[in-house]
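As promised in the previous annual report, we have extended the structural survey to additional targets. Below is the entry for Biliverdin reductase A.
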Amino acid sequence: MLGSVVVGIGIAGSVRMRDLMAPLSSSAAEQISIRGFVSRRSLEDQQGVKQISMTEALSRDDIHVAFICTENTSHEENIRQFLEAGKHVCVEYPMTLSHTSAVDLWNLAQQKGLVLHEEHIELFTPDFKQLKKDISGKTLEEGKLHFTGGPLKANFGFPSFSGIARLTWLVVLFGELTVTSVDLVEEKENKYMKMTAHLLTQQHKPLTWIEERGPGLGRAKHVEFRFQDVTITELPAGQREPVGLFMQDLLLFCRKLQGEVSAAELQAERNRILHCLELADRIQQITENTHA
Ligand SMILES: NC(=O)C1=CN([C@@H]2O[C@H](COP(=O)(O)OP(=O)(O)OC[C@H]3O[C@@H](n4cnc5c(N)ncnc54)[C@H](OP(=O)(O)O)[C@@H]3O)[C@@H](O)[C@H]2O)C=CC1
Ligand SMILES: C=CC1=C(C)/C(=C/c2[nH]c(/C=C3N=C(/C=C4\NC(=O)C(C)=C4C=C)C(C)=C\3CCC(=O)O)c(CCC(=O)O)c2C)NC1=O
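The corresponding structure token record, generated without further manual editing, is:
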């Protein structure tokens, strides 16, 4: 049995606790039990789980795994602390807010022989799974992914990082990308922002990625993917699944802990994650250079 701790009790942290308290039966997730949670606030028991201090979480021998569910600006330090303490880490995306720090942390995990896993629930959604099937074998001519959502709190980082899930969709669907230009509109007083990134596939086909957030904007994705033979303008519905998105991610993390994910798969996933973070970094740099 592996003991675990959940760090940061917001939306994601609460869902992690719920899943750890009720793991999918007869699955590898039953091999992890939750021993406590860490929060910067003083909280009552949550879902029957007790708060413990960070020091205790880092030092206890019966805690082997940490789930990092804090806001994005805290991930890097949280991951480093737990890896240094010899604990496996599952972190909610994005792992960190720069490509360099992610490379560092991954090297640290490797040195220590620990699993470092970045959650990507967006890849488990029924619409994504169906979309991937629908476009397989098709040749892209041009595409657009436009995300809208409510304002994020300040500590979620630059939009290319907080929106890494959309970038990950594009990379998984269309392969490695390059950034050609970026436009950022920010109205801080209105809590409004719109980032438009122009990307190119390796076949030099243009992709536009838009992250737009503001009060009253509902969480939604609008797509327009033009292929040689067909144009997709709506996300397919996909088949609803009985296992929740975070539980699916937990199962993948557990397979890694048990050594059931092949070295080749791990390498491919790591390359994808680092490529996305590198693109996110590039998008941020281009914006800062243009607005300087
Ligand atoms: N929400 C989602 O559906 C998804 C979230 N993620 C990722 O999960 C991470 C966390 O996101 P999310 O849980 O949505 O963010 P939240 O804003 O809900 O929580 C972030 C942190 O803020 C603190 N916090 C939460 N509620 C309060 C409060 N009422 N008052 C003061 N502090 C509070 C908690 O830390 P503490 O307990 O230490 O105070 C918590 O860990 C991010 O990296 C995000 O990208 C990824 C996929 C999906
Ligand atoms: C209602 C308020 C609400 C909040 C505050 C919220 C927060 C929230 N949802 C996220 C992702 C996500 N959130 C969801 C889905 C949901 N998440 C949910 O809380 C619910 C009810 C669904 C409904 C299925 C999915 C699938 C992702 C992955 C990112 C993506 O699909 O692009 C993220 C990570 C950053 C991002 O990718 O945008 C945050 C911070 N989601 C919300 O819906």
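Residues 11, 121-122, 125, 149, 162, 165-166, 219, 245 surround biliverdine IX alpha (ligand 2) (CB under 6 Å). The mean pLDDT is 97. These points will be discussed at the next consortium meeting with the crystallography subgroup.
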